[in-house]
């Protein structure tokens, strides 16, 4: 579910939508001045870097949330004197 949601959020940005529109126009040979490759590489690169950044942010956020939401009965025992 990460990939569809991430792509949806990224294409909410005007710049990403603009480059997608340019890519679609580059696929039409009658109006294309460049190859589609020159448009798809920057778009895929930007989308990939942003997706990796968002994935690491989500992972760090989930790990941080789980360490702070443990039940109070799961506290670490630091005083072992009463066990002896």
UniProtKB/TrEMBL annotation:
Residues 1-40 form the P-type ATPase N-terminal domain. The chain crosses the membrane at residues 20-47. Keywords: Membrane, Transmembrane, Transmembrane helix. This is P-type ATPase N-terminal domain-containing protein. GO terms for molecular function: ATPase-coupled intramembrane lipid transporter activity. One of its GO terms (biological process) is Golgi organization. The keyword Transferase does not apply. GO terms for cellular component: plasma membrane; trans-Golgi network. InterPro entries: ATPase_P-typ_TM_dom_sf (IPR023298), P-type_ATPase_N (IPR032631).
């Amino acid at each position: 579910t990460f990939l569809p949601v991430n792509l949806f959020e990224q294409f909410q940005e005007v710049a990403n939508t603009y480059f997608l529109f340019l890519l679609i126009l580059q696929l039409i040979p009658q109006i294309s001045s460049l190859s589609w490759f020159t448009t798809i590489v920057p778009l895929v690169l930007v989308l990939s870097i942003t997706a990796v950044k968002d994935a690491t942010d989500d992972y760090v956020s989930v790990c941080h949330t789980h360490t702070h939401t443990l039940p109070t009965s799961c506290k670490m025992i630091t005083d072992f004197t009463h066990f002896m």
